[in-house]
Amino acid sequence: MNIQWNRREFLQRASAATMAALAAGAPVSNILSSCKGKSGSNSSADTVILLWMAGGMAHTETFDPKLYTPFEKDMEGNRVLSTFKSVPTVLDGIHFSDGLQSIGKVMDKGTLIRSYVAADMGHILHSRHQYHWHTCYEPPQTVAAPHMGSWIAKELGPKNPVIPAFVDIGQRFTVGEAEELKAFHTAGFLGNEFGPFFIPDPSQGLDSVRPPVGMDAKRFERRNQLYNELINNSPVGEFGSDYQRESLKRSMEQAYALLNSPESKAFDLSTEPKESYNIYNTGKFGLGCLLARRLTEQGARFISVTTEYEPFKGWDTHENGHTRLEEMKRQIDGPIAQLIKDLDKQGLLDRTMVVLASEFSRDMMVEGKPDAKVLEQVQQPDILSDLKFYGMHRHFTDGGSMLMFGGGIKKGFVYGKTADERPCKTIENPIKIDGVHQTIYHALGIPEDTQYEVEKRPFYTTPDGKGKAVMDLLS
Predict the structure, then answer these.
(1) Which residue, 2, 250, 281, 426, is the most exposed by fewest CB within 10 angstroms?
(2) Which residues pair with 75 in a beta bridge?
(3) Stretch among 92-106, 130-144, 252-266, 300-314 having the lowest mean pLDDT
């Protein structure tokens, strides 16, 4: 079987999966044939906030530092394990990379995972691994696999009927691999009403819940009526099921209800006290964390905040890795720590699970895994003659770090271990994506055998329903 998909093949097959989902008709929405319990029962969490480090966050440069190797002109790249000094955290004997001191001070409230292992999918594409992380399914699929947030929105419903159950903050689709990213930012066969409510720029969040400038309420209502007519005359209206048509209409009705609600003020960051606003104001991601906190207060169910994936920017450190990471740490350190402290102070952290993750890690020398190397995508010299080559350049899938807080997650706990010498791969308690997803679903009270019938076969939250919660992470 050829698994060396290129980007064009991935897009073609993702588009085909979307059409297949339409042709398949509605899932059996009122039958979960093998569920043994009711979603939401025996839960330790009500809400999930995903802090997405898009682009491949190097574990050895962030939450799992190794021996610090300062830059020297014409040094061997193989000597470099970490390009930052390590600093102590609040946990005895546990260090983070320099620049993450604020997050280190709140680790007594959460769990550090140092053993995430990404999938082997042949030639590495960020969008394919991000698709896999967010849906738990390896692309391409014959149906459009739902995003984790959509599963949660569908199974648990909104906490507040006015606030969208699934909110996505920070990702634009006008940069980089736009179509590839759209492929997993969807509810798939679950229906549009469970898809993400997009806020590309949190500083303009209020614009997402009000009509465009110059459009009064009556005109907006007429547009809503026109929207319903368009649905009836669209391919979905002609070929889709009643479920799909009604789902599209309900998504618009939800947006209309939010527009006229007092809760819409949560999207207006200008009302945040200045002292608090300044802590979060490190850029778009920091303000996204602030908006996530405000929406959690108002009853959002699942919120994703991303540093945004754009090729060769952010965490995608093919060059200038060290200097780029200095900036990335500045953007995330204060806001994430403040988010945890604010949720804890308000008594929300106990029932709100916060997850920080990335699609894979990075290494100076290894592309893929030591025993499953894949094609090099960007040429990197073995001898570092310039500072721009000093950093973690290649995609590494055999080890990675995640953080989890609240919602029943253990406090002050460290899970897993990677080797201290290259290759810095997982050597204790590996955790894969189906275990991550099922741990989150378990905390939310969503049974592991939750399924819908699609194309006359069961479709589970994890492939074949085999994902198991990692109970060691839960208190």
Answers:
(1) 2
(2) 384
(3) 252-266
Instruction: Give ∠ CA 116-3-145 in degrees, rounded to 5.
Output: 65
pLDDT of residue 94: 98
Is 401 within 8 Å of 61 (Cβ atoms)?
no
Residue 432 phi, psi dihedral angles, 5° rounding: -110, 175
pTM of the model: 0.87
Contacts of 6 (CB under 8 A, 6+ apart): 123
Report the amino acid identity of residue 272.
Answer: E
Question: Which range, of 208-212, 404-408, 439-443, averages the lowest pLDDT?
Answer: 208-212
5's tokens: 């998909």
Q: How far apart are CA 322 and CA 392, in angstroms?
A: 8
Where in 75-165 does DSSP place strands (E)? 75-76, 86-88, 95-97, 110-113
The confidence score (pLDDT) of residue 8 equals 53
Cβ count near 344 (within 10 Å): 16
